[in-house]
Amino acid sequence: MIRFTAAASLPAVERSLVVSVSRAATCERKQHAMISCLIRSAARVLSAVAVALGLGVVAPASAAEPNLPRPDHIVLVVMENRDFSEIIGSPRAPFINELANGGATFTRSFAVAHPSQPNYFALFTGSTQGVESNDTYLLDAPTLAGSLQRAGRSFVGYVEQGSPRKHNPWQSFRESRHAEEDFSRFPSDFTKLPTVSFVSPNLDNDMHDGSIERGDEWLRRQLGAYAEWCAKTNDLLIITFDESPGKTNRIATVFFGRSIKPGRYRDRIDHYTVLRTAEAMYDLPLLANTARRTPIVGIWQKTAQSAQPAPAP
Questions:
Q1: Which of 227, 242, 271, 309 fits 263 for a cystine, CB–CB 3.0-4.6 Å?
Q2: Does the structure show a pLDDT above 70 at 35?
Q3: Whether the model pTM is above 0.70
Q4: What pLDDT score was predicted for residue 239?
């Protein structure tokens, strides 16, 4: 704004000089504002294009989501090829249902694609990367493992012997090929876990080739102690499925830990939402399609409830 009052008592020449300088400063500020606006507009356009193409990091995560905890560790287990209705409420999966009853169960949780591999890519990179098969790939794209490492945190994909490459997404990305360890090295001292772990059982134990009963018993035997740990600490256990054989691709997803407010939640979530929540917990940059999702905020103890428990069936 040009201020004439301060210059009014000055001689005419000096008043003219003050006005000219003020106008020049105002013009410069407008130019800076215009340039800043153009930069922001260009960034929004590039972000939109990146999201549409499924390319990498598109935006920084908003700092410190107020309604989210920051777990000491997250362990995410991906099971295989079962519909929500086959798992939740089924006597064939007593351990998963024990966790569901004591944790957050999402009644509208969906995979994002068929077949298996693109769903794992979605959980790990925020994009299917245009992949529509279980073929072998080696891709250059940012990943959750890389984001955590760049933030001074850690990631490990724990793989049981016999788990195929299509279920181990870090093997398909150059920046994360170092991130795998055999499941036999999953620590019994849970304080030594990395910040985020993915667990890939083999085909007999992930319900792909084996039965629901076998997969459920594997989870109880291998991760029951960790679930008990989560119930009394700041750790978080997530059990989800890659896809459903049904047309709707509806899957079971359960969050379990002391920080959880038990209930059934009807918010619609998918693999991108789960990744988006982890990104927000650790202030990580948003990967590809996670920029189109919001974190899960209504299931946590002592937080404002934005997700509403679903009515009992």
A1: 309
A2: no
A3: yes
A4: 99
Inform me whether the pLDDT recorded for 256 exceeds 50: yes
pLDDT at residue 302, rounded to an integer: 80
- For residues 251 and 244, is the Cβ–Cβ distance under 8 A? yes
CB 79 within 8 A of CB 240: yes
In the chain, the amino acid numbered 173 is F
By the 10 Å C-beta count (0-12 exposed, 13-18 middle, 19+ buried), 168 is classed as buried
Contacts of residue 107, defined as CB under 8 A and 6 or more positions apart, other chains included, come to 84, 88, 264, 265, 266, 310
Please determine, for residue 202, whether its predicted confidence score (pLDDT) is greater than 50: yes
| SS3 at position 226 | helix
For the stretch 120-152, pLDDT in tens is 999 999 999 999 999 999 999 999 999 999 999
DSSP string, 70-115: --S-EEEEEE-S--HHHHTT-TT-HHHHHHHHHSEEEEEEE--SSS
What are residue 203's phi and psi, to 5 degrees? -65, -25
Integer-rounded Cα Rg, in Å, for the chain is: 25
Q: What whole-number distance in Å separates Cα of residue 109 and Cα of residue 265?
A: 10
Q: Which helix (H) or strand (E) holds 182?
A: strand 180-182
Q: How many CB atoms are located within 10 Å of the residue 107 CB? A: 19
C-alpha to C-alpha distance for 58 and 171, rounded to whole angstroms: 23
The pLDDT confidence band at residue 66, using thresholds 50, 70 and 90, is: low
List of residues 6+ apart from 114 with CB closer than 8 A: 243, 249
